[in-house]
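Field notebook, page 269. I keep forgetting to write these up properly, so this time I am using the form the group agreed on. The chain and the ligand, S-adenosylmethionine, are recorded exactly as supplied. Prediction of the bound pose follows.
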Amino acid sequence: MAVRTSVPVPEFVREILAESRTEGNKLFLQTQLTQSEYKKVDRVLHTMGGKWNRRERAHIFSSDPAEVIAAAVASGTTPNTVGKILEAYYATPEPLATHMVAGEHSGIADLEAGARVLEPSAGEGALVRAILHANPDVHVTAVEPNPERAAKIASDPRVSVVVSSFESFAATAPGPFAAVVMNPPFALPNRPTVWMEHLYTAWDLLVPGGQLLAIAHGSYTWRPERKYQAMREFITAHGGCEELPARTFATSGTEANSVFLHARRPAHL
Ligand SMILES: C[S@@+](CC[C@H](N)C(=O)[O-])C[C@H]1O[C@@H](n2cnc3c(N)ncnc32)[C@H](O)[C@@H]1O
C-alpha cells in the first residue's frame, strides 16, 4: 500500500479508528460523528490512501488497511509505509525499563536464584536487559514473533528466546512464572485492545504471589467501555496504576500516552 507522508493523528481520531472495522479493502467507521469530526477523520484516512465511497458507506483502500490503521492507532501518526510497519514495535526507553523492574512495586530483585521471569513481547530485549540488571540470578524467557528483533536479544545463558507470538507460546502451557514484565503491542490489525488480552494471558501464567509489571495504553485511565472498567477493577484489586509523563515513548517513535500497571497474584490462588 503506497502511503505518502506521515501526519499526526489526533487522540480523538485514534479512538475512532481503534473502534473501526475493516473488511477486505474497506474500512467502516462505527462511531457517529459531527461534520467537523468526520472531516478530521477523513483527512487522516485520506493520508493513508483511503477514499470515501458513498455507495459502500466505507473508505476504500487499494488493499487491506488493517495493518496501517493499527499502526496509526498505536503510534499517533500515520505510518509511512514506504518504510515498514513494525507490528507495533516501540522499545521501552532504558530509564522506564529500570523504573519498572527496580521500583517499589517490582520485587524482581528479591526473586530467588533460578526464578523464571517472562517477557512475552520482547522486541529487541530492552526489558530483558533491565530484568537481568535488577537480578542477575533469574532466568528470563523472552518471546518475540519478529525473528529479526528476536535475533537482536543478546545471547545469554540466562535467557531463552522463543520466536513466537505470545498467543501460540501461551497455548503450549509453559510452566508458571514468578514474574511477567511486559510492554505489549497496544493494537494489532483488527485487535484494537490486544494489550488487554496479553495482560490477562500473562496473569494466568503467574505463580501464586507472582508479580505482573506492564506498560499499557493511556486510555486505560478514562475509557468508559465495559472492558476498560473491568481492566481498571482488576488492576485496582491486585495492585495499581502509575500514569507516565507525556512523550515517554517519543524517542521510540510514538506519542501515545501510556501507564505503568502493576498487580500481584494472590498467594492463595
Ligand atoms: C511495544 S513493543 C515492546 C517491545 C519490548 N517489550 C520492549 O519493551 O522494548 C511490542 C512488541 O510486541 C511484538 N508483538 C507483536 N505482536 C505480538 C504477539 N502477538 N505476541 C507477542 N509479541 C508481539 C512486536 O513485534 C514488538 O516487538
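OBSERVATIONS:
- The radius of gyration is 19 Å.
- Residues 87-92, 120-123, 126-127, 143-146, 149, 165-167, 183, 185, 188 surround S-adenosylmethionine (CB under 6 Å).
FOLLOW-UP: compare against the apo run.
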